[in-house]
Amino acid sequence: MAQNCGNCGAEVPLSGTACQVCQEPVGFPNVRTANLTEEKEALARRATTARDSAAVRQTIAELQDFETRVAQSKAVMNRSLGALSSWINGDSPLFQSFHKQVKLLGRIPDTSHWDQQRASAESTINPFSYEEINFSALTIDDNGMEHYGPYSVVLREPTIENRASVFEENPFIFNMRHNVVSGTKPPLGYRATWDQRQTLAVAKLHSEINQGMADKQFAAVLMKQAASGADNDFIEVHIYGPIHRKCIEKVSGPDPKPRVERSIWRQAAKALRKDGAVVEEK
């Protein structure tokens, strides 16, 4: 599927970030896909159904409050102490996607079915850009998915909003849930641009908003923590391209007890504060 360049009118396939004729920037493939008319219309239908259901259940006021909170949500990534330290104090300031790490940095995928099958699942959802995508999750309380590491890294919105799209859930789980197999397209209406992330949250989570639900309860609706990766549930943020360490707004995590780990954490915290990030121990 292609679009036309706004500058010269040439056809620009969704795989590109610039017009091949005049080199005018046309945006990022994942964002352009989320911005397609058929995607937006399908999501709008889901959101309308969600609001109609909330009206019947008499939870429309609570759903509106939830929508308002999600419109203020941020992107959070969770990392182990070692991975965080390598990012903050390593030779390169850029955090690369999993696929770039494998190809360029020598990362060795593990033997889990997640790593073995992730290329297939991710390329189904972002066929033109999956190798460039970094993943994070929507948060409204700055906490992230602990399954991926104890340190929650909140990203500065201005550094990612123009290249970020949001997706219903982990692509691996989504494809299994919707019986999407290789060679078929995923259903429409399960992704959105960054500025419409609240609409996707309404469409997905309306049935979990109950009468009398308070603001402090919304975080657990948006992000569900579980011991296993398959049972975690969150709205995924797809960020095109590497993430510079200056994109970090805040890091929160434990102060380790072992002396060596504590030293690593404090060095990372010092570097983060130097770059203007907030560091919070919990």
Write the layout of secondary structure elements.
Layout: E1 2-4, E2 11-13, H1 29-34, H2 37-57, H3 60-70, E3 74-79, H4 81-89, E4 94-95, H5 98-104, H6 113-125, E5 133-139, E6 151-155, H7 157-160, E7 164-167, H8 171-177, E8 191-193, H9 197-205, H10 218-222, E9 236-240, E10 243-244, E11 248-253, H11 259-274, E12 278-281
Shape: globular
Structural class: alpha+beta
Measured as a percent range, the helix fraction is 25-40%
Residue runs with pLDDT of under 50 for 5 or more positions: none
Secondary-structure element series: EEHHHEHEHHEEHEHEHHEEEHE
Q: How many β-strand runs?
A: 12
Order of strands in the sheet with the most strands? 8-7-9-5-3-6-11-12
SS field, number of helical segments? 11
Mean pLDDT: 92
Cα-based radius of gyration, to the nearest Å: 20 Å
